[in-house]
């Protein structure tokens, strides 16, 4: 019999990955271990190698031991992948070890990307303080489908020998319902407003998306206010009137692009965390993966200057969604705010001429407040 989630320690698998991934994850892990001790959380933490350096050393992006750990874990704490630095890597290895196959293997479908603004960073953001004040939104990015996974895909030659790249954007209604139900329920527990974002005007999958979300709203969530918005308009509204948003439900590709675009509000991509969830397993737990929204940042990797706050805030999401300890999650978020209020700044969120802290010193600034 599967031990119940209440009796089995939460297994957390740490995969630092590439570039700044290991640097920011090291700070996130310090915070996780601190909170584990402080709240006496039943948690088993395991680190495993993953990424391009692992491939160079072992011939595998994700060696067998890492694969096995993925199969038994409840929650992955992930750093970043560099999917561009893979010259010479066989296509099967890329596919086998990719972040997309990891997400699929874990059954992740709901990618939460909260965007909050910090008053201390008003000057850093290109937006006006009056636009930023009170921004508190969360993307629910559908993570299992769309153009990321649709078949056929590939680069082929047409009859004239010209190459063409092919990707296919597909959503079935079960995928839409699953993500939408999650997003409606989330909105119900927040300010009760869901904005569903699609391109129903040009894409059949978008038209279906809109129909399915509308029907689900009618059948199960009439107490939530539903708005539909085209994805390009959403891009505009995110910088004109971001306060109008509470929960934004959207597909895999639009969610990827729009969440990076929203990072400007938070002052830096180095500020945005994310958490991705599966449907509940038989023991009641959802499998999950927590990672910063940003990537491996090759331009600053190895210098010890990356901002670890997105990774640390991803730990807050782990504490909330996988460990179920809301108080601990809030404490981490409050410690980040307090560190910023006290002037702690990594280079990406420092004003010109302002002294900047390195990655570890930013971790220290948060830990000092926990
Ligand atoms: N989930 C992921 O692992 C993930 C996400 C996005 C991109 N990527 C991969 O990362 C690689 C690089 O992509 P990119 O450069 O377009 O995007 P990126 O997110 O790595 O970096 C974009 C810009 O933001 C800066 N930045 C990002 N995170 C930062 C942090 N924590 N502190 C300070 N500055 C930070 C970088 O220095 C860079 O200037 C690519 O191979 C891409 O596929 C991975
Ligand atoms: C690295 C890449 C596959 C990934 C995505 O597009 O999902 C990244 O951009 C993200 O935002 O997590
Ligand atoms: Mg992205």
Q: Which sequence of strands runs across the widest sheet?
A: 2-1-3-12-11-4-5-10-8-9
Distance between the termini: 38 Å
CATH class (first level) name of the largest domain: Alpha Beta
Q: Biggest β-sheet, characterized?
A: 10 strands, mixed
Instruction: Give the helix/strand class.
Output: alpha/beta
Q: Write down the secondary-structure element order.
A: EHEHHEHHEHEEEHEHEHEHEEHHH
Give the number of DSSP strands.
12
Low-confidence stretches: none
In CATH, the topology of the largest domain is named: Isopropylmalate Dehydrogenase
Describe what this molecule looks like in 3D:
Residues 11-366 form the Isopropylmalate dehydrogenase-like domain. Catalyzes the oxidation of 3-carboxy-2-hydroxy-4-methylpentanoate (3-isopropylmalate) to 3-carboxy-4-methyl-2-oxopentanoate. The product decarboxylates to 4-methyl-2 oxopentanoate. Belongs to the isocitrate and isopropylmalate dehydrogenases family. LeuB type 1 subfamily. It catalyses: (2R,3S)-3-isopropylmalate + NAD(+) = 4-methyl-2-oxopentanoate + CO2 + NADH. It contains 13 helices and 12 strands. By secondary structure, it is of the alpha/beta class. It has 2 domains: 1-118 and 267-370, Isopropylmalate Dehydrogenase (3-Layer(aba) Sandwich); 125-266, Isopropylmalate Dehydrogenase, CATH 3.40.718. The strands form 2 sheets. The protein has a 10-stranded mixed β-sheet with strand order 2-1-3-12-11-4-5-10-8-9, sandwiched between helices. Helix 1 packs across helix 11, helix 1 runs parallel beside helix 13 (359-367) and helix 12 crosses helix 13 (359-367). It is globular, with a radius of gyration of 20 Å. The model has no long low-confidence stretch (mean pLDDT 95). 3-isopropylmalic acid is lined by residues 81, 83, 99-100, 256, 293, 295. Nicotinamide-adenine-dinucleotide is lined by residues 20, 24, 80-84, 99, 269-270, 291, 294-300, 306-307, 310, 348.
């Amino acid at each position: 019999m599967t031990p119940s989630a209440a009796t089995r320690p939460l297994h957390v698998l740490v995969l630092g990955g590439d570039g700044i991934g290991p640097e920011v994850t090291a700070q996130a892990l310090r915070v996780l271990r601190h909170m584990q001790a402080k709240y006496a959380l039943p948690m088993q933490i395991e680190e495993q190698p993953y990424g391009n350096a692992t491939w160079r050393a072992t011939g595998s992006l994700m060696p067998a031991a890492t694969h096995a750990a993925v199969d038994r874990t409840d929650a992955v704490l992930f750093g970043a992948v560099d999917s561009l630095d893979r010259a010479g890597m066989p296509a099967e290895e890329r596919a086998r070890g990719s972040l997309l196959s990891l997400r699929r293997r874990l059954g992740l479908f709901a990618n939460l990307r909260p965007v909050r603004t910090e008053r201390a960073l008003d000057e850093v953001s290109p937006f006006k303080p009056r636009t930023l004040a009170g921004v508190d939104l969360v993307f629910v990015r559908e993570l299992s489908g769309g153009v990321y996974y649709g078949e056929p895909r590939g680069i082929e030659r047409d009859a004239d020998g010209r190459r063409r790249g092919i990707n296919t954007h597909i959503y079935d209604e079960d995928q839409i319902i699953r993500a939408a139900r999650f997003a409606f329920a989330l909105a119900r527990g927040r300010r009760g407003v869901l904005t569903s974002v699609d391109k129903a005007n040009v894409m059949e999958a978008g038209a279906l998306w809109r129909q399915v979300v509308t029907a689900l709203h009618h059948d199960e969530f009439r107490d939530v206010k539903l708005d539909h918005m085209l994805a390009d308009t959403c891009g505009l509204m995110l910088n004109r009137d971001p306060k109008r948003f509470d929960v934004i439900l959207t597909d895999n590709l639009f969610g990827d692009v729009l969440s990076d675009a929203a990072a400007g509000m938070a002052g830096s991509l180095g500020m945005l965390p994310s958490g991705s969830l599966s449907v509940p397993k038989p023991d009641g737990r959802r499998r999950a993966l927590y990672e910063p929204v940003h990537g491996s940042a090759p331009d600053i990797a190895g210098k010890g200057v990356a901002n670890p706050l997105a990774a640390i805030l991803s730990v807050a999401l782990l504490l909330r969604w996988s460990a179920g300890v809301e108080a601990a999650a809030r404490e981490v978020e409050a410690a980040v705010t307090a560190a910023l209020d006290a002037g702690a700044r990594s280079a990406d969120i420092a004003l010109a001429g302002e002294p900047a802290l390195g990655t570890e010193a930013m971790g220290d600034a948060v830990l000092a407040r926990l």
